[in-house]
Amino acid sequence: MESATLSQIGLAGLAVMGQNLALNIAEKGFPISVYNRTISKVDETLDRAHREGQLPLFGHYTPKDFVLSIKKPRSIIILVKAGAPVDQTIAALSAYMEPGDTIIDGGNEWYENTERRMVDASASGLLYLGMGVSGGEDGARNGPSLMPGGSHRAYLNIHNILEKVAAQVDDGPCVTYIGEGGSGNFVKMVHNGIEYGDMQLISEAYDVLKNVGGLGNEELAEIFGEWNRGELESFLIEITSDIFKVEDEETGNGHLVDKILDKTGMKGTGKWTVQQAAELSIAAPTIAASLDSRYMSGLKEEREAAAEIFKEEGLKEEINNVGPWIRRG
């Protein structure tokens, strides 16, 4: 879509999260300019904006055209991979920005990097926010939880947009100004660390119920669904219940959950949380154990070799003998 007027906000970085957040902003009635170093991503986002309701989203193919298409004082959200790509994007865009303009880093960034960039931006008269974005790609499109921290003046420049695009609950939008410095990224880091712990607890409950209790996927779906109607109600419990119901459509044989590789990766926020907890002398045993479990999951060959040793010693048979007692309980 061609723009005859200036956009209210810009977004650079059009991977899944960036695309969906940009479309969310446009759908809420805020004209938005978008940019990505890979041109095809700009075209892909423009096509989605057209298909999803002729949304006021405008694509640009150079940093200069992108920055100059935004109304002053400019506010630009960056959603690229943490680390050097953020610095490279800031360098490319800031060459055309002016004092009073704002950069908002919406990625999962180490909070000390945010504070360093804040100092660098201030030297050029630019404002800076580090903003945690929670909810995944679906949340980005339909309503994320937002955790902006840094320049309060910058927050005031865009709070009306953030309040509209954020998830809405009974007591208002899921966004608030967190505080100065890298506080927004710090809160998101801790949030992700807690989620690591939650996911590990869910995984271990599944493991015990299935491998010790001998429950099938239908029974597991029912149990987790029941848990989700009580005090354990959460998105993670809900989708876990749903996962047990998904059949393997490719082979038409069995459930998909039984064919998923038991090996996982991570982006680093859980590790950062454990590091900070240790630095501050704060006990975070559940999060630390969940991080260790992720490391262990990556050692699949070693785990399989160890399992054979335990099997030879009859440990699996001993564990299986416990199953009937669990089912009776």
TrEMBL record:
Its EC number is 1.1.1.44. GO terms for molecular function: NADP binding; phosphogluconate dehydrogenase (decarboxylating) activity. One of its GO terms (biological process) is D-gluconate metabolic process. Gene3D superfamilies: N-(1-d-carboxylethyl)-l-norvaline Dehydrogenase, domain 2, NAD(P)-binding Rossmann-like Domain. Coiled coil: none annotated. The keyword rRNA-binding does not apply. Keywords: Gluconate utilization, Oxidoreductase, Pentose shunt. It is an enzyme of class 1 (oxidoreductase). Belongs to the 6-phosphogluconate dehydrogenase family. NCBIfam families: PRK09287.1 (NF006765). This is phosphogluconate dehydrogenase (NADP(+)-dependent, decarboxylating). The lineage of its organism: Eukaryota, Viridiplantae, Streptophyta, Embryophyta, Tracheophyta.
